[in-house]
């Protein structure tokens, strides 16, 4: 299912190669990438626009994507929930009109079929198998126009909000504003030169390329900007009549890589209703008696005896041991005055905070506790942070171009 699709965000090196199918002429100068806004027809259109929705949608607040080199583009799997948008019960493209336009011109139909990899007679069924969506992020593609009776090709960046048809693996295959077939961009080493009108939000480092999902996507999770919600759209539903409302995905912006040192998913709640135990030395307090001085906060310690049986909140404002069995009882530590100032007491805090600490120690298993230096600001240990690994991505069917540049 689409909800289970993992969004793999990696840096890949892209440039441009302009060739016609079969090694024909070029439709642009090498090293260029054409910027195509959501509402523009662009050059060499196959058909008139069949887009029903192609305006730039307002986006919910999202963290800024980290910048990178001009020739680096992040790759996102086509089945990632939240990668695309759409309006409930409204298709972004008119697939029926697209079919009629190509059937009316046999030369265009043959050229379209050659790019799509199907027989000319199979173009209608191919188009009806696709799913209409809107891009939520500027996306690199190879766009194929029609000129002089044949298909051309050029590298392009499609603006967020562009209406496209995606295949069963979530890869854009048709740009509805011009009817042009789309394929994946060609990876090489040189940085492309943008050509055309730049929209205000365009940045090369914020552009992505969509890679095929590892399995067929039966249901796409789309952001509905019109209703500020989420919907499920079934694969091949080119009218949107089967759309259903959905819950927000865990990662609503799959094209933004996780921040180093932070988990990409929210923490699971503790079974006891308190915050999960940490590796901080503050959880190591035990009610056992001790004949040695209290350990400094920066040192490591471990729990050596059963947790306190007194309920949380039974402590007085004075510094007490969290293991006392009655309110107001004195510390059982040997070799120091019973009225030890808070600054000289053990690492457990007093008052309500101490009660919370004791509760945390009760629910946590007895394990060796790491030092305070292994935590970040008293929170979860950095060693437990979940970060998605970065891998080098190449595009299926494209030539091996060596290792990508940083």
TrEMBL record:
Domain DUF6777: 74-236
Biased composition (Low complexity): 271-387
Composition bias type Pro residues, residue spans: 249-270
Record's compositionally biased regions (Polar residues): 37-56, 388-406
Location of the region described as Disordered in the Swiss-Prot/TrEMBL record: 37-70, 232-406
Protein name: DUF6777 domain-containing protein
Organism this protein belongs to: Streptomyces pluripotens
